[in-house]
Design brief:
globular; about 25% strand; 8 helices; 13 strands; about 230 residues; Nucleotidyltransferase, domain 5; alpha/beta; 5-stranded mixed β-sheet; 2 domains
């Protein structure tokens, strides 16, 4: 059973084929996200990327927004309304003629890194801020904590998004990430916080014992657990 994992991001689109144990079968394929990131150009690029892959049996898709039953409800990082109520899972199915499951991108990456016990949080630092919450391996879908206010005037995402890293520099940005972690600890009391995304490598430890970093390939392996989790209800 081969799973093709597709991660749609505000900056890049990544594809990774994995086996039944979530081991990568090839190098991760990455292309820049088209601008403007409307469904038509994004799907056209994905189709070209898929055509270069070896045969696969099913597809898992992570998308930066709220996704319910494979249908996109919000796409704030992509910055347009063209995605609202877009049936992403059906579109990828029509493209590949394979079974498809599509969920929020942080939710999918979390499946690749959680331990499956107690309360676990996942943060993805990239174009925006992705968040996911799990209890004993069961997900609370579409948390989207990044769009909640953290200070009087700004949300979590507005403080630690990629644009802010470029604007304020690494030192100040890292302090903001520390504030995010401290706030999440006070609200959710997680046993583990897993931090990934393209900007995670720009953090500087040491970190608390319950905080760990993960890379993109590790997160994309969640495309296998997505099928296992949904099959178990």
């Amino acid at each position: 059973m081969r799973t093709l994992v597709i991660d749609i991001g505000g900056t890049g689109i990544k594809l990774l084929p994995v086996d039944r144990k979530a081991n990568p079968l090839a190098e991760r394929h990455r292309e820049l996200t088209p601008q403007p990131a409307w469904p038509e150009p994004v799907l056209a690029l994905i189709e070209k990327m898929v055509a270069k892959q070896e045969p696969f049996d099913r597809v898992s898709v992570g998308f930066p927004g709220v996704v319910t039953k494979g249908v996109v409800r919000t796409a704030p990082v992509l910055g347009n309304e063209q995605w609202r109520d877009f049936d992403l899972a059906s579109a990828i199915h029509d493209m590949t003629d394979k079974p498809v499951r599509a969920i929020n991108d942080a939710d999918l990456q979390g499946y690749g890194v959680i331990e499956g016990t107690d309360v676990e949080m996942v943060l993805t630092l990239g174009t925006g801020l992705g968040t996911a919450l799990y209890l004993d391996g069961h997900i609370v879908p579409n948390l989207e904590l990044g769009h909640h206010p953290l200070t009087k005037k700004r949300t979590y995402q507005e403080l630690v998004a990629d644009a802010e890293l470029d604007r304020v520099g690494k030192k100040k940005w890292r302090k903001r990430v520390d504030l995010v972690i401290e706030t999440i600890d006070r609200i959710f009391n997680p046993d583990m916080i897993h931090i990934g995304g393209g900007n995670a490598k720009k953090l500087k430890g040491p970190f608390p014992d319950h905080v760990r970093l993960f890379d993109n390939v590790e997160g994309m392996s969640g495309g296998v657990r997505l099928w296992e989790a949904e099959s178990q209800g």
